[in-house]
Specification:
8 helices; Rossmann fold; globular; 21% strand; Ribulose 1,5 Bisphosphate Carboxylase/Oxygenase; four-stranded antiparallel β-sheet; alpha/beta; 2 domains
Amino acid sequence: MIKGKKIIESRKKVDKSILYGLDEAIALMKEIKYVKFNESVDISVKIVHKSFQTVRGSISLPAGTGKDRKVLVICKGDKQEEARNAGADFVGAEDMIEKIKGGWIEFQAVVATPDMMTQVGKLGPILGRKGLMPKPKAGTVTEDIKGIVKELKGGRIEYKCDKTGVIHGIVGKLSFENQKLVDNIRAFFNQIIKDKPSDAKGNYIKSVHISSSMGAGIKLNHKGFEK
């Protein structure tokens, strides 16, 4: 009952009828926090496009996500040492493929060299369901193991539009300094604009909301976000 009252009181402080400036919205999001743990900061971007399935890409957040992302690299030979030196959490070849077939999924990103994709492709039913399948377009099928591992460990995230036309993402932790959240939110928004499909016309971005994991959504005035 007390928890319910906290939620109600928290949500009363958000005026659904107005658009908040970014700095104001971040300050309000922190003010209405009512749980003790360090929540993630979520962003939701509603877009207008005839085919939502084609809207996807990747974003490098300048301040990272605040989460320790476990990266698996599937490769052979000298590439394994390159992966370890770059900070990969798990490195291997056929041994890792067999481990995954056995039900092991203790990672949040998978990278593979092109020569391993014939074997990695057989993991489609497992990795595909979890959105972990390496893809050339996402940069996770590559010879540049060092570059992609550093990006993934540093704050690179992938995004895609759901069937309702909304792109969801995590842009940090509530404990982040306000400016770091500003930088991450702007980076997220601007990458979506940069990746705008060529056939998207008119007002591509319909709305942008941010919230903490447990908090109420705060609608942003996204005009002027672009840099």
